[in-house]
Specification:
The complex is a heterodimer of chains A (about 140) and B (about 100). Chain A is of the alpha/beta class and about 140 residues long. In chain A, about 60% of the residues lie in helices and about 10% in strands. Chain B folds into 2 domains: about 45 residues, no CATH class; about 40 residues, no CATH class. Chain B is elongated. The chains are: A alpha/beta (about 140), B mainly alpha (about 100).
Chain lengths: ~140, ~100
């Protein structure tokens, strides 16, 4: 069984947008060569921001089927909240950037707590927090 | 489940058949994901040898995952409806999602 790695929301978003790096990773996932996980927060963001019609819903269901989903526990929320407080973007609360920063904080907390590497295009940010980040 | 439109005239057929044959046909048509009616039509064609090919060959030639009757049926449901896919279907649809947005 391949080692489990976390992915941030950009992997599936960019896969659907036709990114070749994301495709290589998802192809490996579908071939059983890698095992991937995402947080419940990432799943929430994907469902709410990237599923606008029934076909997109079926596409998302099919992709997520092969990805383990990690629940947000109280401990993870505490660590993520602390990360978010220290790395809060300087924009108003309603700004989309705040929501994405919260997602990244939950991803970072999960990666730190579980020891899983995380696939992202924002490698420097995750590495700055001590996570093992992998580009794709 | 929406029925596929049939072309040309049709006749209804009533017959009491052996239960084991009925159950086997029902199981096979479910496995092939085609209606029992279509399965029976193909079986009769095979028996009559009218340019018939095995059902499994007819089902797979030139089809994409979105031509599958059960996938079409699910795609016709409103957003939020359950999505039920086999591993094979999910894999094909996940591949199809690439570059789709």
């Amino acid at each position: 069984m391949p080692e489990l790695a976390l992915l941030d929301e950009s992997v599936l978003v960019q896969y659907m947008a036709g990114d070749d790096g994301a495709r290589m990773l998802i192809d490996k996932l579908l071939a059983g060569e890698v095992s991937l996980a995402l947080t419940a927060s990432t799943a929430l963001h994907l469902w709410s921001h990237h599923v606008s019609d029934r076909k997109a819903e079926i596409h998302m269901s099919a992709m997520i089927r092969f990805i383990e989903q990690i629940p947000l526990t109280g401990d993870l929320a505490k660590i993520a909240g602390s990360i978010q407080a220290r790395n809060r973007p300087g924009v108003s609360d309603e700004h989309e950037e705040i929501r994405l920063a919260e997602l990244k904080a939950v991803n970072a907390a999960t990666a730190l707590e579980t020891g899983m590497p995380i696939y992202s295009r924002d490698v420097d940010w995750y590495e700055g927090l001590g996570c093992q980040a992998l580009s794709y | 489940m929406p029925r596929q439109k049939q072309e040309g005239p049709t006749r209804q057929l009533y017959a009491a058949i052996r239960e084991d044959l009925y159950l086997a046909a029902k199981t096979k048509s479910t496995e092939l994901r085609i209606p029992l009616r279509e399965f029976l039509e193909r079986a009769i064609e095979l028996a009559l040898d009218r340019d018939a090919r095995p059902v499994s060959m007819q089902q797979t030639s030139g089809r994409t995952i979105w031509n599958d009757e059960y996938i079409v049926m699910q795609a016709d449901q409103p957003i939020g409806s359950p999505v039920e896919l086999t591993d094979e279907e999910a894999r094909a649809i996940a591949k199809d999602a690439f570059g789709n947005r």
